[in-house]
Structure formats: C-alpha cells, structure tokens
C-alpha cells in the first residue's frame, strides 16, 4: 500500500498536532485524579482521627469520673449535675493528652484500610506515590496540631483553673464561671520573696502577708509582715504592718504602707497553676520576666518550647504509621507493621516523659529537651519509609 494511502486512512486526528494537544489534557486529568485521591485520603484520615480522639477521651473521662465520683458527689446536693460538670471540666485536659495517640491509631487504620482494600495498589498504579499518601495524612495532622495548640492554650487553662478551685473547695456548690486568680502561698517578685496566707478569688486582696526583700547577692535587706494587703492604683497597700528591726534599726508598727511590687493580680493565675495549665502567652511573659515567677527561668523556657513541640507530635505519629502503606495485604505482615508502629509510638511517649523531667530541672537545654523526641523519631521514620519505598 502506498504510504499516503496508509496515512490517509488515519485521517487528520492522527496528526502530530492532535497528539501534542492531547498531552496537556492527559496531564490535567492526571493531576485532577491525584488531587481527588489526596482529598479522599485526607477526609478518611480526619474522620478516623476525630472519632478515635473522641472515643478515647470519653473512655478516659468516664474512668476519671468513676474514680472521683465519691468526692464530687459528697461535696454538695445533687448527683448528675456535679458529675457532668466535673466531666466537662476534665475533658479538655484529657483530650489534649490523648490527641497524639489518637492520631497514631487513626493513621494506622487509614493506611491499613487502603492496603487491605487494594486501594493503595490502585492509587500507586494511577501514579500516586506513598509520599503523596503520607503528605495527605500529614496535612490532616497539621490541621489537628493547630486545633491541639488552640485547645492546650485557650480551653485547657480556663477549665483546669476552674476545676482546681472547685476541688480546693471540696467540690461544694458549682465551680466558678471564670479562672481564679488567687495568689500562691509562696512566689518571687524581683529580689523579694512573698508568702501569702490566703487571698480573695480575684487576687486583689491578700491576707497574712510576709515580704522578704533581698539584695542581688541574696542577703536579706528588709522584712515585714502585714495582716491585709490590697492592689490599688498599680501599688500594693498593706495594712497593720509589723517591721522588726534589722541591722540595728528599731522595730516599727505601721497602720499602712504602699509597696511597688512588680506583680499584678492577673499574674497570680499563672503563678499558682501547674505548668501544663499555663497558656502560651503566660509562659512567654514568665520566661521573659523571670523576676516575677516562683520557678527558675529555664523551667518556663522549657515549657514554652514544649507548648509548640507537643502539638507537632501528631505529625510524627503519621510518619511512624506511614510504612503500613507499603505492606502487602497479608495478615501477618500487617500485624507486624502495626505492632512496630505502636511500639515506636510508645517509645516516643516514654522519651517525651524522660526528657520532660530533664528539661524541667535544667539538666538539658530547653530546646534540646523539648524537640529531641520529635526530631529523632521523625528522622528515623522518614529513613524507614525511604528504605521501604526504595
């Protein structure tokens, strides 16, 4: 057959221009398929993560309520309302603690479903690499990390402060509607040490106050006690002041005395709570104002770093579970990979707790103690993923 005749049978549609025009269309379709599959993995992971975190948090809160039900109910009349109130105030702290574990389990079940249903094989045949699957889950983990940061720095300090005061009252009545600002028993302000017998709920009134002033070398330069103190016009006004004689000075009894202590009632909520209950803003102020604190500066620096590192642990959990997407759909292989992911997550939590003690005591630099677990386990998980994919 003549070449022209053969070519003529193909027609205009087989020309080079038509073939080149079809390539961008195929590329666009391929990109659309990849985007759709990535969104599918993202939705699947987020749904499982929310269900897992909600379920685990509910179980732990129920156990907590059962363990403390006698104290909560014994504080006053009623049964269901105090127990429900206690559960709601405990829920934010429990959820903040359980989120990384929930993300690990959600990532494991997501990748396991993709493998056992052969969806992972189909996705890889369509040009979706395991890195893209992991990236979609990592995007979901990043969204969860943002929500975790908000929960730990906005909701948890408010709920934990109210629960702490309610517990100090013996669970009588109902908890306060806002976070208490009562002064701690001991705290440092500048070069002074302050002891407070008790204070009002808003922190504006102090009772049975003792103030010890020191020089830069820590030697006592002044000492006085007062029956009552109140915060007025930016100064602390103490009444019924007794000042014993120091360095040859005669004792003094004053009806009132104004003192400029660099602390306000708003700072008491940060000084009296546990470190995990501090918000990021409170830790920032305490780390940059070590003169107004009851703990060393390195303590607040560590917790400031940890407030950022802890939510990012969700990203590490996804990396630990990612090798599951490369396993064959065989029960023994999946069980082995799942056990390895759970064991790696357990080691991560153990390392976090060990370095928590070292960071709080200043035995390790704050950044090292806060970030080493996430950095080391992320590198190891990425190395395993690269080797398995290769």
TrEMBL record:
Transmembrane stretches, start-end: 40-63, 83-109, 130-151, 308-326, 333-351, 363-386
The organism's place on the tree of life at top rank: Bacteria
Mode of membrane association: Multi-pass membrane protein
UniProt keywords, alphabetically: Cell membrane, Membrane, Transmembrane, Transmembrane helix
Residues in coiled coil: none
This protein's GO CC annotations: ATP-binding cassette (ABC) transporter complex
Compartments in which it is found: Cell membrane
KW ATP-binding (keyword) present: no
Signal peptide, first to last residue: none
GO biological process: lipopolysaccharide transport; transmembrane transport
The UniProt record lists the keyword Membrane: yes
Protein name: LPS export ABC transporter permease LptG
Lineage: Bacteria, Pseudomonadati, Pseudomonadota, Alphaproteobacteria, Rhodospirillales
Gene name as annotated: lptG
């Amino acid at each position: 057959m003549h070449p022209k005749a053969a070519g003529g049978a193909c027609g205009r549609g087989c020309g080079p221009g038509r073939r080149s025009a079809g390539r961008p269309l195929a590329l666009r379709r391929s990109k659309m398929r990849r985007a759709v599959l990535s969104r599918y993995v993202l939705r699947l992971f987020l749904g499982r993560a929310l269900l897992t975190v909600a379920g685990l948090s509910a179980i732990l809160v129920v156990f907590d309520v059962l363990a403390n039900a006698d104290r909560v109910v014994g504080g006053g009349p009623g049964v269901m309302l105090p127990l429900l109130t206690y559960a709601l105030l405990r829920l934010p702290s429990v959820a903040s603690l359980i989120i990384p574990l929930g993300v690990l389990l959600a990532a494991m079940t997501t990748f396991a479903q993709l493998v056992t249903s052969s969806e992972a094989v189909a996705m890889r045949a369509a040009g979706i690499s395991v890195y893209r699957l992991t990236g979609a889950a990592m995007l979901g983990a990043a969204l969860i990390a943002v929500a975790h940061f908000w929960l730990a720095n906005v909701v948890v300090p408010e709920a934990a402060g109210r629960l702490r005061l309610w517990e100090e009252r013996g669970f009588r009545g109902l908890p306060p509607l806002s976070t208490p600002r009562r002064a701690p028993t001991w705290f440092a302000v500048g070069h002074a040490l302050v002891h407070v017998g008790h204070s009002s709920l808003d922190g504006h009134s102090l009772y049975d106050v003792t103030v010890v002033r020191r020089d830069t070398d820590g030697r006592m330069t002044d000492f006085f006690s007062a029956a009552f103190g109140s915060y007025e016009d930016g100064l602390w006004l103490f009444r019924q002041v007794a000042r014993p004689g120091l360095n040859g000075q005669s004792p003094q009894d004053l009806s009132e005395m104004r003192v400029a202590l660099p602390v306000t009632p708003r700072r008491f909520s940060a000084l009296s709570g546990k470190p995990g209950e501090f918000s990021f803003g409170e830790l920032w102020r305490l780390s940059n104002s070590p003169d107004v604190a009851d703990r060393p500066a390195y303590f607040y620096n560590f917790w400031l770093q940890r407030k950022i590192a802890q939510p990012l642990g969700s990203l590490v959990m996804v990396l630990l579970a990612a090798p599951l997407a490369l396993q064959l759909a065989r029960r023994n292989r999946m069980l082995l990979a799942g056990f390895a992911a759970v064991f790696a997550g357990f080691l991560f939590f153990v390392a976090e707790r060990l370095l928590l003690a070292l960071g709080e005591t200043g035995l390790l630099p704050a950044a090292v103690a806060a970030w080493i677990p996430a950095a080391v386990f992320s590198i190891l998980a990425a190395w395993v993923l690269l080797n398995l994919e290769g």
